[in-house]
Amino acid sequence: MSSALSALFDDLKDIVAQRTELYQHLHRNPELSMQEHDTANTIDKELSDLGLETQRIGGTGVVAVITNGPGPTVLARADIDGLPVTENTGLDYTSEREGVMHACGHDMHMATLFGAIDVLLQHRDAWSGTYIALFQPGEEKAAGAKAMVEDGLVDKIPTPDVCFGQHVMVFEAGHIGVVAGPVMSAADSVKITVHGRGAHGSLPQNSIDPVVIAATIVLRLQTLVSREISPSDFGVVTVGALNAGSSANIIPDKAELRLNLRTYDSAVRDKLVAGIDRIVQAECEAAGVEKEPEIEYYDQFPLTTNDESLTERVAEAFEQVFEDGQVFRSARVPASEDFNIIPDAFGVPYHYWQLGGTDPKLFRSSLENGTLVENIPVNHSPGFAPVIDPTLEAGIKAHLAAALTYLGQDQAPQS
Question: What keywords does the record list, in alphabetical order (predicted)?
């Protein structure tokens, strides 16, 4: 390990303190997907203050390219959008925007990427190549990565050799989880509209009741995973909403269902999609509907699959940077991401790791008591709040360790 590389972490505490202020500002000012105008302006200003040129790509996406001599090109991505959730964390830097919250940790993703940029700019003698910092909008709606690609991302920045990303999760802060192969599920949201025939509630014989049809569809859908998918395969079909009617004595003329699918395998997804279509059509036909049902797929997230050889390379770097036991082989996550749309557009490998964000004392206590889920607010909940220390520092170190597997020496620096 060279002295230049070891110096990378010497002033990390000062950078963490500086980026803590940015993190709290971002947490106070969340914005919804594809509406992140103030957030993009903040990112733009912070990057400009560092002497970097920026590009706006995909509306509110921001990219800075840091060139530092010959060598490989590494792209690191942070998502920037919040969620329509009302915060109840009680933090002194709680969201100041009613009904909107960084309930998934994207504020931490931005702050950690900025910390990595700070270190690389201060220690240009420790690495060589090109580092692309990409701040992506609209992850929560699977819209942002697609928007950036459609806006010419591939032609506007250098082609990376690898792409990296991370996500703060509910496990012990300061720990890093890596997994090869499928790491986050593919997801589809589905809107189903069933058309019936409205009537007075006292004259059911004059109706084709869409409420009854929708209810039978809900029940039949429960058999897709339990009876049509092998127990060794992963699949989830959730009916998250069923809306119909407005009065107790009126049979409505339509009903709407909202579904969500999660899969790790395209064949399983195809089977679930075919099953949904078959069940909806059959139940409508059985009820004698006069208008075909409508089935619309939206907010579709691709399967996130980490490159196996790159995973091993990154994991080795993490193990040299973090203490024994802090890096572990994690399980797949049934949540979904649109991150891999970006590396797939370039045709390059990627690795997406998990960053622990839970207070270590709370996490260990919950494990001992067997009440982890009950005691710790998870992503997308009103109480979700990663602890800044040591999450922010660990996230910065992880970004640096991953980048230096290409831009630095073959061996990442010890902390």
Answer: Hydrolase, Manganese, Metal-binding
Half-sphere exposure of 260 (CA within 13 A, CB side): 13
Question: With contact defined as beta carbons under 8 Å apart, do 2 and 415 qualify?
Answer: no
What is the CB neighbour count within 10 angstroms for residue 366? 18
Provide the b/e sequence for 331-361 (b: ≥16 CB within 10 Å): eebebbbbbbbbbebbebbbbbbbbbbbbee
Centre a 10 Å sphere on the Cβ of residue 142 and count the other Cβ atoms it contains.
Answer: 21
Query: Contact 236/260 with Cβ under 8 angstroms?
Result: yes
The answer to the question of whether 140 is labelled as a binding residue is yes
- pTM of full prediction above 0.85: yes
User: What gap in Å lies between CA 164 and CA 75, rounded to an integer?
Assistant: 6
Determine contact, residues 109/42, Cβ cutoff 8 Å. no
Give 215-258 pLDDT, tens digit per residue: 999 999 999 999 999 999 999 999 999 999 999 999 999 999 99
Tens digit of each residue's pLDDT (9 = 90 or more) over 157-186:
999 999 999 999 999 999 999 999 999 999
Q: Which two tokens stand for residue 103?
A: 């309930």
d(CA 197, CA 385): 48
- Which helix H or strand E contains 116, and what residues bound it? helix 106-122
Q: Where are the alpha helices (DSSP H) in 263-385?
A: 266-287, 308-321, 341-346, 360-369, 372-375
Structure tokens at 314: 């990154």
Q: Do the strands 73-79 and 294-301 form a parallel or antiparallel pair, or are they unpaired?
A: unpaired
Short-list 49, 120, 145, CA closest to 346: 145
CA pair distance 169, 28, nearest whole angstrom? 20
